[in-house]
Backbone:
């Protein structure tokens, strides 16, 4: 049970975390002025613009997602539904500001859900309030030794960047900081596991207890279908460990409650069936849809070497090892889930899959839970104080990340901010260009453009821009006017491009000076930005 006092503490903690993480965003709006406009994002700006673009696409009435960062034909894909739905709540004028505001509301809702679900999960295993509170603080703000990187030790990590600073799947903070679909997805994953464990321990499973976990994971599929697969893996390993323990008890001539195991199996099968439609649909689509298959092939999110994970988990590992010994001495169905989750981590992290780093989603929750078991056996006040002091190092990476964000945003420069002149050019194009029109622009301009205007670009987003490696040089040659008029026409006809957006850098390269007026018509020229329309 979670007492009313605990609930008040949880909500105060949630407001504190989300309030602190809102400071850099608020600072961005404070610092924007006549010359610069804040994009609404303080890290991962390229992806952030793509989320706003998805919301803007949803505002046009679309339900099937089509990325605006390519001009290749698309059949449409049922994905990014939360963003598409939120977009439908907005309308011009000032639509970009509405979209960013709704994104922040979504971020707060997802963060609240993740914090509450994490506390509920820890409450399944620990009666002591101090352990529950410490656990949720570590789950949400904890990390590893990433803070060492600021002392010139970047070479400890394979890419010079600690996991805490780029992997929302491994830890929890980045999701709360700016990836709301992942934080809400983590909450739904945990709620499903809670319902599964509680239902498996009941004497009789009612209809609600049977279907609720599966419904939660079906909704999870709307956030992140791959996390559903992670949940399935945890269930399968848990059932396997329970069966193994039952057989061991049988050969020891001991009693094992096989009825509970069968109840767990029944709930697990129901969960998998109810949560499978979106997973199957996604797998089928990425297998047989040519466009999505090519997108998948170039979307690589690979796990770092094991050494990076060891550095990421170094602070909690001593307690995990101690907790492991305690769990093995007092084996229970609940603790077998935590054990199985940790055991399966290497298999998930290094599965032969192009999104392998995504698979061990939530592993930090399992490690913290296991670590708290190790901490719970410490009775000495001195050793307990020493343990708390050691664990404080876990949150230093988050503090550094926040401070770094504030310093970065204080510089008021691209890509976190966009020139006001550029945004005005975007808004002009919003009035002139029909929805879904193809615009040729440099990568730097093409990434934010679909966040303001529901048009398509040839490039602008690493994973979503098809054949980026081949097309980007072609676009650069086009903008730099290194293509003959005949080649320009070929490119325009190939992608049915209707508009050209040029900024100060492109104009200084000489494009407009030599432009063929038989091909292009000048629509807009202001503050160093040009918009050309392709003549029919």
Residues:
């Amino acid at each position: 049970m979670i007492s009313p006092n605990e609930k008040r503490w949880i909500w105060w903690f949630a407001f504190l975390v989300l309030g602190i993480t809102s400071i850099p965003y608020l600072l961005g709006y404070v610092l924007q002025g006549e010359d610069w406009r804040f994009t609404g994002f303080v890290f991962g700006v390229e992806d952030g613009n793509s989320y706003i673009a998805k919301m803007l696409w949803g505002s046009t009435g679309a339900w099937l997602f089509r990325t605006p960062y390519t001009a290749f034909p698309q059949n449409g894909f049922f994905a990014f539904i939360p963003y598409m739905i939120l977009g439908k709540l907005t309308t011009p004028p000032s639509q970009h500001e509405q979209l960013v505001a709704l994104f922040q509301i979504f971020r707060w809702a997802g963060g609240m859900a993740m914090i509450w679900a994490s506390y509920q999960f820890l409450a399944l295993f620990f009666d002591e309030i101090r352990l529950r509170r410490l656990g949720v603080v570590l789950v949400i703000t904890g990390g590893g030794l990433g803070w060492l990187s600021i002392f010139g030790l970047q070479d400890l990590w394979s890419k010079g960047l600690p996991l805490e600073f780029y992997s929302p799947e491994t830890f929890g903070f980045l999701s709360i900081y700016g990836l709301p679909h992942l934080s809400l997805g983590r909450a739904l994953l945990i709620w499903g596991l809670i319902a599964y464990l509680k239902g498996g321990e009941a004497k009789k499973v009612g209809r609600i207890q049977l279907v609720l976990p599966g419904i939660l994971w079906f909704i999870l599929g709307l956030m992140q279908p791959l996390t559903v697969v992670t949940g399935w893996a945890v269930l399968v390993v848990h059932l396997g460990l329970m069966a193994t323990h039952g057989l061991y008890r049988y050969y020891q001539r001991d009693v094992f409650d096989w009825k509970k195991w069968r109840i767990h199996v029944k709930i697990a099968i129901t969960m998998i069936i109810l949560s499978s439609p979106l997973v199957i649909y996604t797998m089928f689509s990425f297998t047989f849809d040519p466009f999505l298959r090519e997108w998948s092939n170039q979307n690589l999110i690979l796990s770092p070497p094991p050494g990076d994970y060891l550095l990421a988990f170094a602070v909690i590992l001593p307690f995990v090892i101690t907790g492991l010994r305690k769990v093995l001495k007092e084996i229970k169905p609940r603790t077998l889930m935590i054990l199985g989750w940790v055991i399966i981590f290497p298999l998930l992290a290094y599965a032969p899959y192009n999104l392998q780093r995504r698979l061990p989603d939530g592993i930090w929750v399992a490690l913290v839970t296991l670590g708290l078991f190790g901490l719970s056996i410490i009775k000495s006040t001195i050793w307990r104080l020493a343990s708390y002091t050691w664990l404080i190092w876990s949150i230093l990476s988050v503090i550094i990340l926040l401070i770094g964000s504030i310093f970065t945003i204080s510089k008021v420069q691209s890509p976190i901010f966009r020139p006001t002149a550029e945004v005005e050019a975007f808004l002009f194009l919003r009035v002139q260009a029909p929805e879904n029109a193809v615009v040729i622009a440099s990568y730097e301009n093409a990434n934010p453009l679909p966040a303001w205007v529901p048009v398509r670009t040839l490039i602008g987003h690493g994973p979503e821009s098809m054949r980026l490696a081949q097309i980007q040089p072609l676009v650069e040659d086009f903008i730099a006017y290194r293509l003959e008029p005949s080649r320009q026409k070929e490119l325009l006809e190939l992608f049915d491009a209707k508009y050209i957006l040029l900024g100060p850098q492109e104009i200084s390269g000489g494009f407009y000076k030599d432009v063929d007026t038989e091909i292009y018509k000048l629509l807009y020229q202001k503050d160093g930005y040009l918009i050309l329309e392709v003549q029919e």
In short: The two ends are 70 Å apart (CA to CA). The longest helix spans residues 258-288. The chain is about 60% helix and 5% strand. Residues 42 and 332 are 44 Å apart (CA to CA).
